[in-house]
Design brief:
The complex is a heterodimer of chains A (652) and B (101).
Chain A (H helix, E strand, L loop, with lengths): L14 E6 L5 E5 L1 H7 L2 H12 L13 E5 L12 E7 L6 E7 L2 H7 L4 E5 L6 E7 L2 E6 L8 H11 L6 E4 L2 H4 L7 E3 L3 E3 L4 H7 L2 E8 L2 E3 L3 H15 L3 H9 L5 H6 L15 H7 L2 H7 E5 L10 E5 L9 E3 L3 H9 L9 H12 L3 H16 L18 H13 L3 H5 L3 H8 L9 E2 L2 E2 L8 H8 L14 H4 L5 H8 L3 H5 L7 H18 L16 H12 L5 H22 L11 H5 L14 H15 L10 H6 L3 H9 L5
Chain B lengths: L1 E4 L7 H11 L1 E3 L5 E5 L6 E5 L20 H5 L3 H24 L1
Classes of the chains: A alpha+beta (652), B alpha+beta (101).
Chain lengths: 652, 101
C-alpha cells in the first residue's frame, strides 16, 4: 500500500500510535493508507490484526493487540460523528472482537494527532496512558487506580491532572479480574460493550487511556463539506423522530418492542412484559421523574438523545447516572423478570458501567443461572447460598458484583453462560442462549432480517453489524424508500415474519453498518433507525468532501465486503466456526413465541436454512460450511487470504 | 460573558464549528465559545468571548455569514442567537465608550 502523508491528509490526524507495554516503546507510523483503503475504524483494525496476529496467539497473552480507532469523520461537524471502535482477538468467542461506543475521548485522541492506537505487549504492573497536546505519550503508574471502579478512576485522573474536562477510556474490576464479558467504559456511561475487550485490556495491566489534544483537523473541500453537512442536518430538523429521541432516546422503544414480541423476558422464555406490568415498567416514567440534564455527543444530528438522571426516591434513591439504552430494559429488567422495581435497569446498568461489565454478558449469565435454579438444576449449595429466583433485584445486583470480582459462583458466571454451562454440565447448555459463545441479547424469533443479521454477525451476535432494525422498531410510512434502498419487494419490507428477501436486506445493512462504524457516525442518525435519515449516498458525499478521496456508494460496498470477508477469515484462522455457528440458539430456533401479539409463531427451520443459503450465495460463501470461495476473496482483493485459508482447509 | 443554557447537552459541536470559522480547521483550540460544566444548576454554562484572552478569541458573530456556524449545529439555536446578540451589543457599547474616551 502506498503512503499518504503531509498535505494529502484531510479529515484524519495522519498517524498510528503503537505503544508496547512490555518494553515501553512508543512509535508512530502513517495511518492514511490504512484509512483510505479500509475506511478506518474496525476496517483498518481487521487488516492490521489479520496481518500481525499469528495463528498461535491467544486473547490474554502479551502477543495479542488491542486496537482503538477513532471514526474517520470524528472531530469534524459531520452529523453524528462521535463513535470510536476497539478491536482485538477476543476472549468470548475466541475470534473477531469489535465494539464501538460514543465518545468525547475520540476527538481528543484525534486532535492529539492519532487516528489509531495499537496497544501491544503487557505492562509489568498497572499503568495508564496519558496522551496529550501535540501527541506526547506517557506511560504512568496506575497502582493507585487499580481496583477502583471506572467512575472513581475518572474522578482520580481528573483530580490528579487538575483538569475536569479530561475524557478517558478505562476498565473496572471486571476487566482487572478478566471477567470474559468485561468491557471498556468511556468516562462513566458509554461502553465498548461487547466481546470482552475490557478483559484483554486488563490482561495487559492497562487501567486507562487519557487523551487531550490541542490540534485540529483539515477538510479537503470545505465548501462542499459544509454544504453536504448542511443538507444532511436539515433532514433531522423538526422531524418527529428527532423530537422523540431528544426526549427519551432509545427508551421510547417499549411499545414497538412489546408489539413485535421483541422483549427478552426470563431468558427468552417469554417475549413480552406481562400486560399488567408493561406500563409500570415503561422507562419513560423514570426519565420524566428524574431527568436533571441533557447529554449529547459531538456532531449528533438529533441534538442528543441521552440525559443525566438523579433518582431522589425509591430503592435507588441517591443514584446519579447517565440514562441507559433500551437494551438494558430488555437484557436486565426483562431478562431477570423484575417487575417490582421499575428503576432496576438503570441501577443495574450503572453498576455494570462502574464495574466495567457488559450488560448483555451480565444478563445472559445471570438469567441462565436463574433458569437453572427455576428448573432445579442448581440450588443454593451451588450459588453461595443465594436463592436466585426470577424477579429478585437484590440478588441480581449481588450476582453482577460477584461476576465483576469473580467471587464464588460469580467466578463461573464470569465465564459467560456458554462456558458456565460447560462447567456445570447437567444439560444446562440448552438454557445458555448465545451466539458463537457470546451471550445473546437479541430476540431472533419474530423478525427475520433482524434475526439473520444478528446470527451471522462475525463478532458473535449483536445488532450493529447487519441486523435490520426497523423489523423491531417500526418502519414508519416510508415503505417505498425502504424497498428501493434494500432492493426487495413490499412483502419483504413490510413483513418481519417473511423469509424471502431478508438475506438481501441484511447484506445492505452489513455494508451500511460497517461504513458508519468506520466513519464514526452514530446509528441513530441513519436509516437504520429512521428511513428519512442518513443513507450511503449522503454519507459518501460528505466523506468525499472531508477526505478528498472521491468515494461512491459502490466503493463503500466493495470496501465493506472486503472488511467482512477479512473478519470471516480472521474467525476461520482462530476458531472452528462454520455454518452451525450462524444458526439461532436452540430455544429461538425450536420453541414458538410464548407471549404477546406473536404468541404461537415459530421459526420454520427449513425456511431459515433456505434464507441462510441465500445469504451465503450473496456473499460468495460455501453453503455447507460458510467458508468464502477463492473467487470471492480474489475479487475482494484478498488473494493472500485465499492462499492461507486453502492451507488450513477452510476455503469454500 | 457566561450564560446558562438549560437544554445544552455539551456535544461541543458549536466549539469546533467556531474554530472552523476562525481557522478553516475543526478543533477546540481556536474558538470564541466554550461549553463548561454548571455545578450549581441545570444544563451547561456557555462562555462567549467578548475579547481575546483566556484561550478564546473574540466572537464576531460570523459577520460574513447569514447564520453563525455555531447556530447551524445547535438544537437550541435561537437561544444561542440571543446570547451572541447580547455579546455583540456589549462589544458595541464598549467600543462606543472607547471611542468617546
Amino acid at each position: 500500500m502506498s503512503e499518504i502523508t503531509g498535505n494529502d491528509q484531510f479529515s484524519i490526524a495522519g498517524k498510528i500510535l503503537r505503544v508496547n507495554l512490555s518494553n515501553g516503546e512508543v512509535r508512530t507510523e502513517p495511518s492514511g493508507v490504512y484509512i483510505k483503503e479500509w475506511l478506518g475504524g474496525s476496517g483498518s483494525a481487521v487488516k492490521i490484526l489479520y496481518d500481525e496476529l499469528r495463528s498461535w496467539v491467544t486473547p490474554y497473552e502479551p502477543a495479542n493487540k488491542l486496537i482503538f480507532s477513532v471514526g474517520t469523520l470524528i472531530g469534524t461537524s459531520a452529523p453524528g460523528a462521535c463513535k470510536m471502535n476497539v478491536s482485538t482477538l477476543g476472549p468470548v468467542t475466541g475470534g473477531w472482537a469489535s465494539s464501538c461506543c460514543d465518545s468525547y475521548f475520540g476527538a481528543q485522541l484525534k486532535y492529539a494527532g492519532y487516528d489509531i492506537l495499537i496497544i501491544e505487549g503487557k505492562a509489568r504492573c498497572p499503568v495508564y496512558l496519558w496522551i496529550h497536546d501535540e501527541g506526547k505519550v506517557e506511560i504512568l503508574g496506575a497502582e493507585k487506580l487499580w481496583g477502583k471502579t471506572t467512575w472513581k478512576t475518572l474522578d482520580e485522573i481528573r483530580n490528579s491532572h487538575d483538569d475536569n474536562n479530561l475524557h478517558i477510556l478505562s476498565i473496572g474490576p471486571a476487566g482487572e479480574n478478566l471477567a470474559r464479558g468485561a468491557c471498556i467504559i468511556q468516562d462513566t456511561g458509554r461502553a465498548m460493550g461487547r466481546c470482552g475487550t475490557g478483559s484483554v485490556m486488563g490482561s495487559k495491566n492497562l487501567k486507562a487511556i487519557v487523551a487531550r489534544g490541542s490540534g485540529s483537523i483539515k477538510i479537503a473541500q470545505p465548501d462542499r463539506f459544509l454544504a453536504a453537512v448542511r443538507t444532511s442536518r436539515r433532514i433531522f430538523k423538526d422531524h418527529p423522530a428527532t423530537k422523540i429521541m431528544r426526549k427519551y432516546g432509545a427508551l421510547c422503544l417499549l411499545p414497538p418492542k412489546q408489539a413485535c414480541s421483541g422483549i427478552n423476558f426470563k431468558n427468552f422464555q417469554e417475549s413480552t412484559f406481562p400486560d399488567d406490568a408493561a406500563d409500570r415498567l415503561d422507562p419513560r416514567h423514570q426519565v420524566d421523574a428524574y431527568e436533571v440534564k441533557k447529554q449529547s455527543f459531538p456532531g449528533c444530528g438529533l441534538g442528543g438523545c441521552s440525559r443525566w438522571l438523579h433518582f431522589t426516591e425509591g430503592t435507588y434513591a441517591g443514584l446519579e447516572c447517565e440514562s441507559c439504552q433500551w437494551e438494558a430494559i430488555s437484557t436486565l429488567q426483562g431478562r431477570f423478570g423484575i417487575l417490582d422495581e421499575p428503576a432496576f435497569a438503570f441501577k443495574a446498568n450503572a453498576l455494570c458501567n462502574e464495574y466495567g461489565l457488559d450488560i448483555d454478558s451480565a444478563g445472559g449469565a445471570i438469567s441462565w443461572a436463574m433458569e437453572c435454579y427455576q428448573r432445579g438444576i442448581i440450588d443454593e449449595t451451588k450459588t453461595d447460598g443465594l436463592k436466585i429466583k426470577w424477579g429478585d433485584a437484590g440478588v441480581a445486583l449481588e450476582l453482577i458484583r460477584k461476576m465483576a470480582y469473580r467471587e464464588g459462583f460469580g467466578n463461573i458466571l464470569a465465564e459467560g453462560s456458554a462456558r458456565a454451562a460447560e462447567i456445570l454440565g447437567l444439560c444446562s447448555d440448552y438454557y445458555a442462549i448465545h451466539m458463537k459463545k457470546q451471550d445473546l441479547y437479541e430476540n431472533i424469533r419474530g423478525a427475520m432480517a433482524w434475526g439473520l443479521g444478528t446470527t451471522t454477525a462475525t463478532r458473535g451476535g449483536g445488532h450493529t453489524t447487519g441486523a435490520v432494525w426497523f423489523e423491531t422498531t417500526g418502519l414508519g410510512p416510508n415503505v417505498e424508500k425502504a424497498q428501493k434502498i434494500y432492493g426487495v419487494d413490499n412483502e419483504a419490507i413490510s413483513n418481519p415474519l417473511a423469509y424471502d428477501g431478508k438475506a438481501k436486506m441484511v447484506t445492505y445493512q452489513e455494508i451500511l453498518h460497517r461504513v458508519i462504524n468506520c466513519l464514526g457516525i452514530c446509528i441513530y442518525n441513519t436509516i437504520t433507525f429512521n428511513m428519512d435519515f442518513l443513507d450511503l449516498p449522503e454519507i459518501a458525499e460528505f466523506y468525499s468532501a472531508a477526505t478528498g478521496w472521491e468515494t461512491s456508494v459502490d466503493d463503500f460496498k466493495k470496501i465493506a465486503m472486503r472488511q467482512l470477508n477479512l473478519e470471516k477469515a480472521f474467525n476461520l484462522r482462530f476458531t472452528d466456526f462454520d455454518r452451525k455457528d450462524d444458526m439461532p440458539p436452540s430455544r429461538e430456533l425450536l420453541e414458538p413465541i410464548a407471549t404477546g401479539p406473536l404468541a404461537g409463531w415459530a421459526i420454520d427451520e427449513e425456511k431459515w436454512n433456505n434464507m441462510l443459503d441465500e445469504y451465503y450465495d450473496l456473499h460468495g460463501w460455501d453453503r455447507a460450511t460458510s467458508y468464502p470461495t477463492r473467487e470471492t476473496l480474489v475479487s475482494a482483493g484478498l488473494d493472500y487470504v485465499a492462499d492461507e485459508l486453502q492451507k488450513i482447509g477452510k476455503l469454500g | 460573558m457566561i450564560f446558562q443554557m438549560d437544554n445544552c447537552g455539551a456535544c461541543r459541536t458549536c466549539e469546533i464549528m467556531c474554530c472552523f470559522h476562525h481557522t478553516g480547521t475543526f478543533g477546540f483550540s481556536t474558538t470564541s465559545l466554550r461549553v463548561q460544566e454548571n455545578p450549581k444548576g441545570k444544563g451547561y454554562l456557555i462562555v462567549i468571548a467578548e475579547s481575546d484572552g483566556k484561550g478564546l478569541i473574540s466572537c464576531d458573530a460570523c459577520k460574513n455569514l447569514e447564520t453563525p456556524l455555531c447556530m447551524e449545529v445547535c438544537k437550541e439555536a435561537e437561544q444561542l442567537r440571543a446570547y451572541i446578540e447580547a455579546v455583540k451589543a456589549e462589544q458595541k457599547q464598549l467600543q462606543q465608550v472607547a471611542e468617546r474616551g
